Structures are given as structure tokens and as C-alpha cells.
Amino acid sequence: MRIDIITIFRDYFAPLDLSLMGKAQQRELLTIGVHDLRSWTHDRHNTVDDTPSGGGPGMVMLPEPWNEALTSVTSGASSADEASGADAGGVPTAEVPRLIVPTPSGAVFTQRDAERLAREPWLVFACGRYEGIDARFAEEAATRMPVEELSIGDYVLAGGEVATLVMIEAIARLLPGVLGNSESAVQDSFAEGAMSHLVEGPVYTKPPVWRGREVPPVLLSGHHGAIDRWRRDEALRKTVRNRPELLRGHASEDLDARDREVLAEEGWPSSSVDMAD
Ligand code: ADE
Description:
Elements: E1 2-7, H1 19-26, E2 31-36, E3 49-50, E4 60-61, H2 63-75, E5 98-108, H3 111-117, E6 122-126, H4 135-141, E7 147-151, H5 160-172, E8 209-210, E9 213-214, H6 224-242, H7 244-247, H8 257-265
Parallel strand pairs: 1-2, 1-6, 5-6, 5-7
Antiparallel strand pairs: 3-4, 8-9
Helix pairs in contact: 2-4, 3-5, 6-8
The protein binds adenine.
Adenine binds at residues 102-104, 151-153, 155-157, 159-160, 163.
């Protein structure tokens, strides 16, 4: 996968050279180019913003530098700086990328979006600052490529950089080969499948007794069936306690008799589980 990021703060993306993302780049599973928006300004002050039309607080980013940056980055002729020495400015890996614009007014980014975007060959992230980017930029871009506005949650950050880091990490760890077998994403909270409406339960390691606290004996029993069942019980309990909205509205046919027992123990009224259909 190729990812291009356009930003006025390239330094925000240094963490992409670390750990899993760094290794994914070294192994060429992922190519990331980070481009300075100001490279596509033409005035002495490298201006990227101006006052909002209609008045109001803050500043709005100008559409023209964004459009020039996007055109340059997506034509494969980018002359802007690239982070981490990765050569992401050359020939594109696919003809047309998908443009992601992080914004608190976007649709909420979920694990489903991470899974969907991990199947794309090329993503471009446009990191706005201040009060956002003039809306005509995304309209114009949408005539050339798919465009999505995405939010990472119901809070307001100072700009799209951190949201972009969050989304890239969620997406990139799903790329084939990025996680080792031992770190399979299959068991993740929210992972697609029968457990997608559950968060993961607690995890343990050694020693078997630490400060008088035992690892639950079933985990040391070697009975894989019993371990799986215990893990599901704990996932159900944690979901009821921390994220009840994930269970609410969930089709009840996915719940077996033991699931219902565990939920009842947690005080979850079975009538709250959606009897859809
Ligand atoms: N920019 C500012 N806040 C944001 C959020 N919550 N998600 C995505 N981009 C943002």
C-alpha cells in the first residue's frame, strides 16, 4: 500500500518510522510519503490560510495550495520533501488514490473502515488545521477521485495530523504480513466476525501468581474449548460494563444459551438484546 500525507507539520509523522509501521516500511509492505503543503504556496510568507467567509473566529485553509499539492502528489511528480527517506514520490502504485480528509465533522472511523481502507492500494490524507479547509477543495477533488471525510471520535483535535496517525496505524496493521502470526488481528476487539460486537476480555502472562493474584486457572488448564468459552464470557462481561451500546441492537441469534446466562449474571436484561427479525 502507498500512503501520502499532506500537512504543514511533517514532524508529526516521525512515529511512522518506529515499531510496526517502521518495519512495514522497511519491508516495503507500506510506502509513506509526507509532503509539506507550504511547498505549494507562491508568496513570501508561504500563506496557507485566510479569514472565514461570512466572518467568525479562526482561520480557514486556502483551497489553492491544497489543490496544487494534491495534483502534484497524485500525478507522481511530487517534488515535496518525503519523510524517512522512503521514495514515495515516484511512480504511483495505482492510478487514482482515495482522498481521506480527517475532520471532527466526518463520519466516525471504525474498525470496519480500517478493514475496508486496508484493501485500497493508495490513500492520500489531507491534514487540515485551524477551522478546516475551504469546502471547495474536497468538492473539486471529488471530481477526480473518491473523497471521504472521517472523524476519529467526538472530540476536537488541533488538526488532522493525530487523527491521520491513528487511522494509518489502524489500517496498516491489517495489511498482509505486517502483523506476525503470533499477533493475529483476528481476536481484536471489534474484529470482523462473530465477536465484532464485543471488546476483548482481560489478558494475563507470567508469573501464574503475582502479589497473591492468580492467573485464572482455566487459562493454565490446556483445555482449548474451555479457554475459548472463558474468553467469550469475559468479553461479554467487559462489553456490558464498558460498552453496553455495542450489545444493544445486536441481533440475538448470535447469542447462545451460555452467553445469555453470562449477560443475566451481569444484570443485562435479555429484552435489551434486539430481537430484530
Ligand atoms: N481534526 C480535529 N478533530 C478531529 C477528529 N476528532 N477526527 C478527525 N480529524 C480531526
